[in-house]
TrEMBL record:
Any GO CC annotation of this UniProt entry: plasma membrane
Membrane topology per record: Multi-pass membrane protein
Biological source species: Microbacterium testaceum (Aureobacterium testaceum)
Superkingdom, natural source: Bacteria
UniProt-recorded name of the protein: Iron ABC transporter permease
Length: 348
């Protein structure tokens, strides 16, 4: 009897070891990809630079045009890493909190709410401080999240994944239309934010990175602390409540962390889409559905994807640039269509 019991545990132990190896290999690979992406981001652009130029730029020298270009690319690279990580983690958290495989800050209208709030603040209240953009962006993102959930909860059955996706899509279109309606008559505001609407990190400065970093750290800590609760929510609300979880509180805290991340990221980089949709689904194939692994690995994957997308946007149209929001849309749109067509991805 003891031998049979011991034998029955072997497959489970082997499965755990196999997942452990995959997670370590995947984590290591993502770190390498992110480092390579950061090096490429600093090196490639409209102006070619040499290794000595890169070193001079990293040490703060602006004696040559190439060194100055490298020095300008450093905060741009840091912002791409931070924004990519924030969007990917917020997407993974929203998918886990809503048990909706189509959840994404842009698809659910959260990015659109942040953008509408920022544009409204500039056009009607004269906001000009980047730090105020962040606060207003987070408020707009929170308001959009509440509105989408309220619309998705109407009728019998509550907020199902399909209803949330539809409510988010409708809300995102409405927010985009309202933003355009505010910008079109205000050429002064439109000239400042026409590129911001597309989404990009080209305007990054050390001050921008320093201002957004505390908000992203707080949001990331809240999301990582919510990982065990998200694992419990994945079992279903009734079973999670039976295990002693405070379902509404857990979902509210996790969503709040995601809102802080995507609101702050949208404030400094514009409404960049699909990063929070593509990365979590790709990395679930490598590390599984355990959010204690999925969230930190998604941060690395999102940072690498957005940094590489920014490099591609700078290289393919030199000396002009393609904003990173366009590149991520070209990557994410086919993935979104494929995801919708997969019947077994209707729920997490």
């Amino acid at each position: 009897m003891t031998a049979l019991a011991a034998a029955s545990t072997v497959p489970g132990d082997a499965r755990v070891r196999r997942w452990g190896r995959r997670r370590v290999v995947g984590l290591t690979a993502l770190v390498v990809v992110l480092v390579v992406a950061a090096v490429l981001s600093v090196t490639f652009g409209a102006r070619d630079v040499t290794a000595s130029d890169v070193w001079a730029g990293l040490t703060g020298s602006n004696d040559t045009a190439s060194a100055a270009a490298v020095a300008k690319r450093i905060p741009r690279t840091l912002l791409a890493i931070l924004v990519g990580a924030a969007l990917a983690v917020s997407g993974a958290v929203l998918q886990g909190a809503t048990r909706n495989p189509l959840a994404d800050p842009q698809i659910l209208g959260i990015n659109g709410g942040a953008g509408l709030a920022i544009v409204s603040g500039i056009a009607f209240f004269g906001l000009s401080s980047p730090s105020m953009y962040i606060w207003v962006g987070m408020l707009g993102a929170a308001g959009a999240a509440v509105l989408v959930y309220a619309i998705g909860s109407l009728g019998s059955g509550g907020a199902t994944p399909l209803r949330l996706a539809l409510a988010g899509a409708v809300t995102a279109v409405a927010f985009s239309s309202l933003t355009s309606a505010i910008l079109l008559p205000r050429t002064d505001v439109m000239n400042v934010f026409r590129f911001w609407q597309i989404g990009g990190v080209g305007g990054a400065t050390p001050e921008t990175v320093g201002q957004v970093l505390p908000f992203l750290i707080v949001g990331l800590i809240v999301c990582l602390a919510s990982a065990p609760a998200l694992n419990t929510l994945a079992l279903g609300d009734e079973l999670a409540a039976g295990l002693g979880a405070r379902v509404r509180t857990a979902r509210l805290i996790a969503t709040a962390g995601a809102v802080v991340l995507c609101g702050a990221a949208t404030a400094v980089a514009g409404p960049i889409g699909f990063v929070g949709l593509v990365i979590p689904h790709m990395l679930r194939l490598i590390v599984g559905v355990d959010h204690r692994w999925l969230l930190p690995v998604s941060a690395l994957g999102g940072a690498a994807l957005l940094t590489l997308a920014d490099v591609v946007g700078r290289v393919v149209a030199r000396p002009e640039e393609i904003e990173v929001g366009i590149v991520t849309a070209l990557i994410g749109a086919p993935f979104f269509i494929a995801l919708v067509r997969r019947q077994r991805m209707r729920a997490l």
